[in-house]
Design a protein that fits this description.
Layout: H1 2-9, H2 16-21, H3 26-30, E1 36-37, E2 40-43, E3 51-52, E4 58-68, E5 76-85, E6 93-96, H4 98-101, E7 117-119, E8 124-132, E9 142-150, E10 156-165, E11 172-174, E12 180-186, E13 201-203, E14 206-208, E15 215-220, E16 248-250, E17 255-261, H5 281-284, E18 287-294, E19 297-304, E20 316-317, E21 322-325, E22 337-342, E23 355-365, H6 368-372, E24 383-388, E25 394-398
Length: 402
Amino acid sequence: MPADSARGTARGTIPALACAALLWSAAACAAPPPAQQAPVEARIPWAPAAVAATDGRAHLAYELHLSNFYRATGTLRLTRLEVYADDATAPLARFEGEALQRLTAPAAQGEPIAKDIPIEAGQRAVLFVWLDLPRGAAAPARLRHRIEFVDARGARTWIDGAALTVSNLAPVSLGPPLAGGAWMAYEGPSNAQSHHWGSVVAANGEATIPQRYALDLIGLDAQGRAVRAGAGELAKTRHGDWVGYGAPVLAVADGTVRAARDGQPERAPLSPQPEPAALSADDLYGNYVILEIAPRVYVHYAHLQPGSVAARPGERVRRGQVVGRLGQSGNTGGPHLHLHVSNAATFEQSEGLPFVFERFQAIGRRSIGEALAPDAAFAPAPQARRAQMPLDGDVIGFDPAR
């Protein structure tokens, strides 16, 4: 294959005599650049926009698609990713080892964490890149990437480019989706290995990520428990044992209902979930409401209680209006409200958009294991926040008057 032949001659090694003739330094001759460029296609399908979060920093979230293009190349092992902002010569972020592994799907339980990411010949890897921007600094206008591999012969290969223009769109601003209480943001933004952000949906020739910034909001009591005290064995709990079950779900802004569904049954909490027939709202959400709050801005509410959906397609709703009640319909293992914002009224062929809540209380942090334990310590320390996005594991509360 001509491309493979070209690769064979594109060596970066510099003969010692050439170094001497050009008066290059000994250090330059001792440390040549990686041997050759990698035969890899690098794409970033969706431009990120900066969004402020509860950790006091702004962040960029995007996906880097890496395709090992030629069959003859064999397996490439991704060893390092560096991200550069604008014209900077020092990287904004560097990922290698365990940090690199956290940009991909998690290893199977019991498997050791690898130092690199293999990409088989003719295959694609997707990296879910989460960048912490410097405090107080403006978001960069552009990003570029240096990506290093080791090929099947052990030679170092590289890409220097994969440029993107950062979106300057502001995140979507939302009112409260629930009233009062304490709500844990489970599998939320910043967690590249979550079932939300980590789920690429391929449909009708497009690969998109509808749930890039999705939250599963799980109700907690004052002790940080998702299940009421005295409920007994977790596997035998009923819906009413869960703190958030039945809570009113609110319109986060004025808008028009573009899709809604009711009448779907609920499964028992923590019961096995069947494989969905298709990746669509009807096959995943159970009972749901999809609300258009601005042109090409849609809020998705999923897993609502049967018989609770109070909005119909085409109906105008006002901010704070009850559109349903928190339940466990659809593809879910326990009662919670699934919430995300996208650019389409469908699940498939839509891209998740960053959002912030106008006002809320940042109460603390919680893992799902702690929330389901009967006696895990919880020390709430509420802080008023404005125009921020909750991160994975945050516990937040909403003022019902807002």
